[in-house]
Every structure is written in structure tokens, then in C-alpha cells.
Amino acid sequence: MIKHIVAWKLKDHAAGNDKRTNAIQLKARLEALRGKVPGLVTIEVGLNFNPADDASDVVLYSEFTDRAALDGYLNHPDHLALVPFAKEVRLERRVVDYEVSS
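Above: the chain's sequence. Below: its structure in C-alpha cell form.
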């Protein structure tokens, strides 16, 4: 099992929207991948409510059957279609991928 976790800190304003609107849009776009990517077992997207300056605004938690499934997700056309939006609205992005043995 592969776990893929991404946290984004968003710009206050981007793509003609405020941070909250962009967070909601990013969440919806990511959740729309559910059921479309082979090997994607779990996808969960959360919006932060912690006001700390060092907190991220959006987090993605996902699980994949194996590394090939993660690679397939990263190159899936529906994922690639949301990447430009994510890049436009983000101030910072952090990612962690790790394998859990059974």
C-alpha cells in the first residue's frame, strides 16, 4: 500500500477568487478523481480550520495499491487537468509518499 499526502498553502487571491473559494474548488477537483483512477483505493481532501501562520490550507490523503498505481494517478489525464489550477492558486506545496507493508 502506498500513501500519498499533499498539503497546500494557498495564495490569498488567485484565479479571480479568494483563498477559501480556491480551497473549495481544489477540494472538489481532487474528489472528482474518485473512481476514475485505477489503483486509487482512498482519497480524502480536507480544508484547514487552524488559524496558525504555519498551517496549510488544503490537505490530500490518498492510498494506492502500489507504486505503479501512484504513477498512473500522477499521469492520469483528469489529474493532469487540475494541476495548472493547483499551481496557479498555491503559495506552497509539500508532498510525502511512503509505502506501508502489510
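Residues 80 and 95 are 16 Å apart (CA to CA).
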